[in-house]
Specification:
- The structure is a single chain.
- The protein is α/β, with parallel strands linked by helices.
- The chain has four domains: 126 residues, Response regulator (Rossmann fold); 105 residues, 2-Layer Sandwich (Beta-Lactamase), CATH 3.30.450.20; 165 residues, Alpha-Beta Plaits, CATH 3.30.70; 224 residues, EAL domain (TIM Barrel), CATH 3.20.20.450.
- Strands 18, 19, 20, 21, 22, 23, 24, 25, 26 and 27 form a ten-stranded mixed sheet that branches. Strands 2-1-3-4-5 form a five-stranded parallel sheet, with helices on both faces.
- β9 and β10 form a beta hairpin.
- The protein is globular, with a radius of gyration of 32 Å.
Length: 694
Amino acid sequence: MPDSNVDSALRLLIVDERVEDAEAVVSGLRNAGIAVRPLRAESSDELGRMLTGQIVDVAIAAHAAATLPFAQAMQCIADSGQDVPVIALLDRFEEADFVDAVVSGARTVALRHAPQQLLASVRDAWADRKARRSLRRLEARVRESERRCDALIDSSRDPIAYIHEGMHIRANAAYLEMFGYGDFQQIEGVSLLDMVAPQHVDAFKALLKSLSRGEPPPPRHEIEARDADGHAFPAAMEFTAAQYEGEPCLQVVFRRRELIDPELAHELEALRQRDHVTGLLNRPAFLRALEDAVDDAARGESRHGFLMIEPDRHQLLLADIGLDHADDLLAAVAARLASLLDPSAIAARYGGNTFAVLLRDGDYHATAALAERLRAGFAGHVFEMGDRSSVVTLSIGGVQIGERSANVAQVLARATQALESASGTGGDRSDVFDPGAADRLEEERVQAWIARLRGALEHDGFVLHYQPVINLQGDTAPVYEILLRLDGGDGELIAPGAFLQIAEDNGMLAQIDRYVVARAIAAIARRLREDQPTTLLVKVSQASLDGDALAEFIGELLAHHQVPGEYLVLQLPESKVFTHLKAAQAFAAHIGRFDCRFALEQFGAGLDSFQLLAHLQPHLLKLDRSFTQGLPANADNQARIGEIAARARQIGIRTIAEFVQDAASMSILFAAGIDYVQGNFLAPAGPGMHYDFE
């Protein structure tokens, strides 16, 4: 099976005296694609130490626990001062228990026998926890930004003042100097109208009234200003909504008009906002427009559409027309894109060969129609670049920006995901996320992936990569781990994180396991014929534990290719084995008849990993990748690795550390007694087996 990407881990605290149930919760979360770093407390002292020693994201506390009562656990969590959302775990729903849990401070309750509801509760609590943490960080940054802005305004050479209800509440030295005042006390509380020549007062009053009603300020307002001695001078004013000491106000910048060349200023501003290759808006200018659109949607004032666009087979196009025409290709794509857009749409070069379009005041149907119009407009157009001509198709991913998706990061993430989906399912497609029709779109996406995976299985559309696994104790026998990739066409390889969950949800993991195992055994046979005996590590899924089909399949292939089973190591994640223990025992025994090896991967991340070894005797333990992340600076992980290596050595099991990132980590792992290491620092995975183990 392919390796999967690991997201930032959920630090989960479990207060439950039922060890099996606690492990089942952790396994359920991991099965749902959530990386978990679990902790389990059995006493108030242990709970206090855990809360003092590290940050906890979410806590699950059994309401009926006797060893550590719920009320006592809640008090410990409250005393820690941490912002930890607690989910009260109930054996059955009773109104009195629900009320007691909520009154005690639990965020919500979940039923022990309803794992999907518990999973949803954990997701919600974790998302809320991250949102609160982000809000606190943002508030701190805002305060720091306000302090810095205050200092910058003081030192600015631009005359700047802050106006509240028409009165001066702040002005910098340049402003005071322009109007001939010695210090701010001379104009504090003075109306801004006093700075305006009499003939402009009525028009300026009307402007201030419109601003007070929340109407947008003009980009520039020209008047005759008047200084402290009554002398008039031509000036231009620029307004920006601002806050000063927590109060909403206007920031006003005055400039003498004789110092301004409007034509030059306009030209420079236009150049600053444009991409020099395509003539479209550049990324910073576009992001400002996107932020404005998101703010509009957050206030419930409007809906907008956002598209991310990439030419398909870009590298092949460049190879065909030549790298010296790369800018010509981008310019031609940009020109065609602009010709297909309405004036209300904003287009930009987002970065590299990625373009972006913002459709203001458009609903989902308008956004989807625009995406399809762009796709069709490119598919039916022939591009002329020098002496070459070609058709350029597009992959388009989009999202409808509404009140529920009014967050720039979320909008970008969803559009990027939709773009990857359109590109990953063959290109020349548009995929627009509609919050109102998410289920329908998701089903279409899943069906496209299912068809693609079936095609890969039937027509050999997967690619095997091999990563060396290097022995630290002097053994030079070649060992590789097989990693699976999906051939996306045009030289693109798709990582398994894009399709693993879909394959699992649709019962395709066992077929993928058989595909990889068959090619692994054939590769071992090929290496034996070349007099290079090689051990291969292959990931398999829990789906292959259902019955004896895979084990029998392995036996038949080993006999057919005349391959000794000792060269094939089959790996299963610790969490899957824990929840399928009897099936894993039967599988290990069955493949053992062919002398194949069995390995546990992601080892050490469970609540009591060594408990498994009382029921199962693997040949190898591969440590969870979290142990090697930032290893030189993490004393706890260093100690834990040493403990695992020592205990494994005592019972004759070899250990592997993966994702090794630096030389310092290598030294630590060698000193700890780890047997094997792998990682891109040592050697990346590749399509061939060429590493020199000598």
